[in-house]
Amino acid sequence: MKNLVSVIVILFFSIQSFGCSCKSLDGIMDEDYDRAQLIVKGKIKKIEIKGYKQVIHVKVIIDYKTALQDSVVEITSYTSGDACGMSFKEGTTWLLFAYNKGGVFFTNMCTRSQRIQTKETGGYKRKFLKEDLTFLEEKLKTK
Q1: Least enclosed by CB within 10 Å: which of 10, 18, 116, 142?
Q2: Does the pLDDT at position 101 exceed 50?
Q3: Do residues 43 and 62 touch, judged by C-beta distance below 8 A?
């Protein structure tokens, strides 16, 4: 019986979790910019929950890649953090990196998307947010 319990404990701790797993965030590079089809600074106007996904309606303040200035764009994300979904609140401002997935803009916590103006954006995240915004402003100048 003792051996059975030991085997169960070992199996329990050796099974790989299938939750969200992202590579660590490093300084922004051209490949990060190129990989995203949409990069905007925007304010969350509305959130629609559709099953295990959420559609956020974002009022674009600055569009760093296309010509969506002063428009509202829809971006989808999962609702669960286990699926790398993000937690959005209406009225908050975000820097959003999204990719096109089947004709829909999609983001998750493995992108460089970050909330702006928050207490949680402290430490290393604030450093990367500042670097990202500086990098993107430079890209706008050379566009």
Answers
A1: 142
A2: yes
A3: no
Q: Check: CB of residue 38 under 8 Å from CB of residue 58.
A: no
DSSP β-ladder status, 93-101 and 72-78: unpaired
Task: Report the C-alpha gap between 4 and 122 in whole angstroms.
Answer: 46
Whether residue 67 lies inside any domain: the answer is yes
Residue entry with tokens 């303040």? 61
DSSP helix/strand/coil, 87: coil
Rg (CA), the chain: 18
Considering the entire predicted model, what is its pTM? 0.79
pLDDT averaged over every residue in the chain = 82
Domain containing residue 36: CATH number: 2.40.50.120
Name the residue range of residue 132's domain: 24-142
CA distance 46 to 121: 22
Over the range 66-85, which residues count as b (16 or more CB within 10 Å of their CB) and which as e? eebeeeebebbbbbeeeebb
Amino acid 5: pLDDT: 45
User: Distances from the Cα of 113 to the Cαs of 32, 40, 75, in angstroms?
Assistant: 11, 9, 12
Say how many domains are in the chain. Answer: 1
- Hey, is 85 helix, strand or coil? coil
